[in-house]
Write a structure and sequence with these properties.
Length: 493
């Protein structure tokens, strides 16, 4: 980008003591907040087809016009935005000492004004106005016109801010990468420095949610129901399916968190998630989601589960963007996503999925989905929220949802009992009578899950809760031993 002659001139910078008297101009995106307000606004519009339809035309109007449209279509809630607390403390101290503090940002003026009004910290706001995108050289030129060359200190964070620091009297480095920080030190005195967090990688790993991969162990169930546990090839293809669903699910979790930022920031626990809290910038989440999705689809092709995986990805994305807001549609969608994992496991083995297993899983996973939603309603009521954010339920719906869920649980065990006494079971198991012991164990486990939810013990997905629950592990071990015994004793069928 060409630099104006006024900016090219770079007289000797003022001494640092003198620089501390200069007006302190502060960038917003990546500096005052670790997030990106334009990107957050765009993500907030993903669930609105009418908005998405006009984005191509808006891009032709330029970046400033796009920012104005997004600011109007998805108004920023400045009170929910994460902020750099060390920088805020520094700015407050400077203002107490009588220094002029200015918010200067490439974000739209409406966004900047909302932030300034919320913080009550700035004497002036300079921002993009729908016609001019105040970034890089344009921002530097605006500040030179307002304060003169070298007549201001500037707090920024990335390579585009180097043009501003070239014209500034002092720099405040906030979350600046090492190369940017080194270049800035050669342009003007550094008044203060706030290094980037070293927790980004750990935060991204947390956002990927590897603990949720336990759900994808369902792809191994058809190995047992098809009686192929002695075949190494069956385990290999099931493992590839597990990897494909884990990578794809993690990509969907990232997309879900990125499109649900405002709702997560209102939630007592979800506000601590990496994107909502500002530990991980949204741009990094988008890149990671794309990489994981490509890896998942490629592995799905190797495992032979690509059609089911694509359906899972489409349905999961639709759930994240819209279906989660529709009452009952959301829980039926969640149940369907669980069942798709079983279908993928059978697909990887080249075996049809048993109709008995499909019938059992439909009711079983519907009950678990209703547990998840009932727990969220209970927590919302406990914290005084009349409505769940981005959910179509009210606290008064908790009773009927619990009724639906318990009924689905007993319907699942009824299907299981009918399967135990079916001709199919008699043909496939050496001692099918032993399988009757599984029925009370499943009933006990489902009742315990519902009791745990009613008592407020469950703060996560029920399957993730079960993976951490010792009693659930005991029940799962007993069921496994009974299945082995039913196959092994009494003579081969």
């Amino acid at each position: 980008m060409p630099v104006s002659p006024a900016l090219a001139a770079n007289p000797a910078p003022p001494a640092l003591d003198d620089a501390r008297l200069l007006p302190l101009c502060v960038d917003l995106d990546g500096t005052l907040t670790p997030s990106d307000t334009l990107l957050e606004g765009l993500l907030a519009t993903l669930g609105r087809p009418s908005t998405l339809g006009v984005l191509p035309a808006l891009l032709r109007r330029g970046r400033a016009g796009l920012k104005r449209f997004v600011a109007e279509a998805a108004p920023l809630e400045a009170s929910l935005l994460p902020y750099s607390e060390p920088l805020l403390r520094y700015l407050r101290a400077q203002r107490v000492n009588g220094r002029r503090v200015v918010l200067v940002t490439a974000a739209d003026r409406d966004v900047a004004r909302r932030v300034a009004d919320h913080l009550g910290l700035f004497d002036e706001v300079i921002a993009s106005d729908g016609r001019e995108n105040l970034r890089g050289a344009a921002k530097a030129a605006a500040l030179v016109r307002r304060f003169g060359h070298g007549g201001f200190a500037y707090a920024g964070n990335d390579a585009t801010d180097l043009l501003v620091w070239r014209a500034a009297g002092a720099a405040i480095l906030v979350n600046a990468p090492p190369r940017v920080a080194a270049a800035a030190r050669g342009l003007c005195p550094v008044e203060a420095e706030f290094p980037p967090s070293s927790d980004t990688a750990r935060g991204l790993l947390r956002a990927v949610r590897p603990h949720q991969w336990s759900k994808n162990l369902l792809v191994f169930v058809p190995v047992f129901t098809a009686h192929l546990e002695g075949l190494a090839e069956a385990w290999l293809f099931a493992f590839l399916a597990f990897l494909a669903f884990s990578a794809t699910a993690s990509a969907i979790y990232l997309i879900n968190d990125l499109t649900d930022l405002a709702a997560d920031r209102r939630h007592p626990r979800k506000r601590l998630r990496p994107f909502a809290s500002g530990r991980v910038p949204p741009r990094l989440g988008i890149l990671a989601a794309g990489a994981l999705l490509l890896a998942g689809l490629a592995t799905g092709g190797l495992s032979g589960t690509l059609p089911t995986l694509l359906l899972y990805a489409v349905l999961s994305t639709a759930y994240s963007l819209r279906l989660k807001e529709l009452p009952l549609v959301d829980v039926f969608t969640l149940a369907g996503l669980y069942t798709l994992r079983l279908l993928a496991g059978a697909e990887a083995l080249g075996q049809p999925l048993s109709l008995w297993l499909m019938g059992f899983s439909a009711f079983f996973f519907l009950s678990l989905a209703l547990v998840k939603r009932s727990e969220e309603l209970r927590a919302a009521a406990e914290h005084g929220n009349a409505w769940l954010n981005r959910r179509g339920y009210r606290p008064a719906d908790a009773g009927i949802l619990q009724t639906f869920g318990v009924a689905a649980a007993f319907a699942a065990t009824l299907v299981l009992a009918l399967f135990v006494q079916s001709e199919t079971t008699a043909q496939r198991y050496a001692s099918p009578g032993l399988l009757w012991a599984v029925v009370p164990l499943v009933v006990f486990w489902l009742c315990r899950i519902w009791l745990s939810a009613a008592r407020g013990y469950m703060h996560d997905d029920p399957i993730v809760y079960a993976a951490r629950d010792r009693v659930s592990w005991v029940v799962a071990t007993l069921v496994f031993l009974i299945l082995v015994a039913a196959k092994s004793y009494g003579g081969a069928a």
